[in-house]
Amino acid sequence: MKKFLSVLLAVFLVSSLTVSVSAKTNLAALKGTTLNVYNWGEYISNGSNGSMDVNKAFTARYGIKVVYDTFENNEVMYSKIKGGGVNYDVLFPSDYMVARMISENMLQKLDFLNIPNYKYTDKKYLNLSYDPKNEYSVPYSVGMIGLIYNTKMVTKAPTSWTALWDTQYSKKILMINNPRDAFAIAQSILGIDYNTTKASDWRAAARRLKQQKAVVQSYVNDEVFDKMESGEAALAPYYAGDFLTMKENNPNLAFVYPSEGVNAFVDTMCIPKNALNKAAAELYINFMLEPDVALANAEYICYASPNTAVVSNKNYSLKDNKYLYPDAASMPKTEIYTNLPQSTLNLMGSLWDDVKLYNGNNVKTVIGLSTVAGIAVIYLIFRTVQKKRRESD
Amino acid sequence: MKKKLSIGNKVVASPYLLWSILFIIAPMFFVVYYSFTTSSGAFTMDNITELGKFTDTFLRSIWFGVLATIICLILAYPIAYIITQTSANSQRTMVALVMLPMWMNFLIRTYSWMAILQDTGIINTFFRKIGIGTVHMINTPGAVILGMVYNFLPFMILPLYSVMSKLDKSVIEAAQDLGGNRLTIMQKIIIPLSMPGIASGLTMVFVPSVSTFYISQKLGGGSFDLIGDVIEGEFQQLYNYNLGASISLVLMILILLCMVFLNKFTSNEEGMVI
Amino acid sequence: MKIPSKVYTFLIFLFLYAPIIVMIVFSFNSSNSTGLLAGFSFKWYSVLVGEKDIMQALYNTLILAISSALISTVIGTAAAVGIDKWKKNWLRSSVMGVTNIPMMNPEIVTGISMMLLFVFMGKLIGKEEILGFETILIAHVTFNLPYVILSVLPKLRQTDSFLAEAAQDLGCTPIKAFFKAVLPAISSGIVTGMIMAFTLSLDDFIISNFTTGPDFQTLPLAIFAMTKKRVKPDMYALSTFIFVSILVLLILTNVAQARGEVKKNKIAKGDA
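The joint structure predicted for all components is written out below.
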C-alpha cells in the first residue's frame, strides 16, 4: 500500500510539473499572436477620461495583439459570424443569442482550467436557461432595459412604456432598432410573454409598433447617446448603464423602469467554433474577470457587474446605484429572452420588415411617379410624332 | 503579320478577360443562385413572391431617385453653363472647386448635414436666435433628397461642363447671326448638343440615389427605409441572404430598364441638329 | 460675369461647401459636442494623432488605394490596347457590356455579390476566414477597371493607328514600338484613369463594408463605425486634415498646369 501511494504521489507530482510547464510554454507561444475580439460598441473601458485602456493593458501584459471590432446588436453579430468569411476569437453575445448559437453548433466549450478567475462570478448568474451547464459562456455584464427621458422636455415623469407612443412628444421619441427589443416593448404593453410562439401575439405586437411609427423620430442603437445628450430627442428606451453614461453629459436626463415590465439580460463572453486562437481567447476572458479590469469596465460602461470582486469593492462608485442594483422593493418585473424556434424567428424578421417599411402616405409617391412617367411617355410620343411628320414632309 | 497582331491583341487583353469572368460575371451568378434557393439550397420561387411587400419601398426609392436626379439637373445646368462662360484659368479653378467636395469622405459630409439640419443643429439654433422658432427639417423625405442632391451634384455638373466646354462656338455664333435670341439658342442648339453630357449625368446621379443606404438612415431616421437599406438589413441584420439577393436582382433589372428607357429618350435628340 | 450669375454661383458653392465649413469649424470646438460651439481649441488634433486605430486605418486606406490603382491601371491599359484593335463583333460588344456592369450596378449589389463569391471560394479552398486585405483589394480593382478602360480607350481612338506601324518600320520590335510610340500618346488617358481609380478607392465604403475582414480596417469603414456610436470631433479634425491636404495638392497641380500652359504659349509664339 505504501509503495502504491508513493508511486501515486510521484505520478501526481510529475504530472503537475508538466501541467505547469506546459502552461508556461503556452504563454510564451502566444506572444506575438493576434486575437480578434467582437464586442458591442462602447462596451469596454478604453482609456478615455483617465480610465484603464483594457485592450492596451492586455497587450502590455501578454504581448498578444488585440484586433477589436464592434457590432451594434446581437442580430448583426450573428449574421456576420453565420455568413462566414471572417474569424473572431472572442464574442460577446447576449443570453438568448448564446442559446441560439449553441443550438446551431457555433460555439465551443470553454476550458475553465484556463479561466481561474471564473471563481469571481456571482452564483445567481450561473446555470441559467441559455447555458444550463455553464459550458460555453462566462457572464460579462448584466442589466435591464428601461425608459430614459429628458426632464426638461417632458411635462410629466413617465411610468409606462406607452409614453413612447405619446403624440404630445411626436418626433421627439426614439425607438430601439432591433426586432427583439422593439417587439418586447410592444409585448410588455399588451401583456404578452416575450418568448411567445403564437403568431397572433407577434402580429398584435407588430400592429402596435406600426401605430408608433408616426411619432418616432428615429430608430437607433448607439446613436441614442448623441441624440439624448444634445436634447434632440426627449424619450428613448435603452439600458440602465447607458443612461448613467449619458447623465454625466446631460444632467437633465432621468430613468425609470416602466410598470409593465422590462427585459433583463446577461451579456456573456464566448468563443466561436472556428476561432483560430482559442488559448489567447481564454486568456482574454480570464483577464476580463480580474478584479481591477472588471472594476475598470464596470466603472466605464456603468452596467451592473456579475463579478463578486467588483460588487464587494469599497471603491466601486456605483455599488449603491438604485438603477443598477435595485433593492427588492424597487425591483421591476423582468423577463429574460430565450431562443425562439426558427419559424418564429422568420415570422419576427418578416414582421420587422413590415414595421420598418410601413409608411402611411404612399399616395404622394404613387402620384408623383405616375405624373413623371406620364409626362415622359407623352413627351416621347410627341417626339416620335414630330419626327414622323418631318420625315414625311 | 496581321494574324500575329490579332492574337497578340487577344493575349494582352486576356488578364482582363479572365478577371472580368471571375469577378464581374461570377458574382452575378451568385446573386441569381441565392435569389432562387432557400437557405438549405433547394430551388424555390418564395424569395420572388415575397418581394410583393417591398413594392412600396421600390416605388419610393425610384421616386426619390427621380426627384434627386431632376433637381440635380436643374441646379447643375446653369452652373455648368456659367463656368463655360468664364476665362480658361478660372474655369480650371472652378472645376477643381466643384470636384474638391467629392474627395471628402461621403459619410462625414452626410453626417455634417445632420449637424446642420437637426432640431438642435446650426440652422435651428440660428432660427431660434432670430425668433423664427424651430423648423423640423431632419428625418423628413426632404432631408433625404437634400442629402442625395448634395452628394451627387458634382457628378451632374462635371459631365455637363465637359460637354458644354467642347461645344463649337462657331455654331452658336452662326445661330446668333441667323437671328436667334438667347432662349431659342438654348433650346435648339445648346440643350440638344449637350445631351450626351445630360445622359451621362443622369445616369451617374440616378443609380447611386436609388440604391443609397447611408443617406436615408442618417437623414431619414430609419422611417423612410429605401431599397438599399432593406438589402443591407437582409444581409447584415436579418441574415436572409436569399431574400436580399432577390431584392438585389430586381433592383439591378429595374435600373437596367431605366437606363434603356433613358437611352431611348436622349438618343432621339441627336437627330434634331441641323 | 453678370450679377444674377454671380449670385447663383455663390449660392451653389455655398451649398457645396456648407458641411465642409461646419466640419472645419467644429474640428476646433473645445467641447465634445458636434452641435454646439463652445470655444476654440486644438485638442482634437492631438487626440487624433493618439488614436492608433485611426492612423492604422488611414495607412491601410492609402496602401489599398495605391495598390488597386496600380493594378487596375496595368490590367486596364493592357485590356484597352488589346480591345481597341478588335473587330467590332459580338465579342467586342459583349466585353464592353460586361465592362459597364460595375459602373451601372448599385454599389451595394456589387458589394454583396462579391461577398457571396468570396465566402464560397473560402469554403472551396478550406480557408474559412477569407475576407481580408486580398479580398478587398480584388473588389477595389474590379470596380476601378471600367474607369481605367473607359479613360484609355478614347485616347487610343484619337491616336493615329499607324503610329505603331511607323515605329516598327523604323526598326522597333512590336513591344518596343508600343512603349516608345503608343504609350506616350495615351499617357494622359492612363493618368486620368489612375487618378480616378485612386480617388474611388480612397472613398469607397459600401463595397469595402462587405468585402473586408476585421484585421484590415479602412478609413471610411472606421468613420462609418464612429458615426454609429457617439461621434467625437476628432473625426472632424481628421476630415479637415484630409481636406487641407487635398486643397494644397490641387492648388499645386493648378499652379503647375497654369505654368505649363504659359510655357506652351511662349513656345508657340516663338519666344523662349
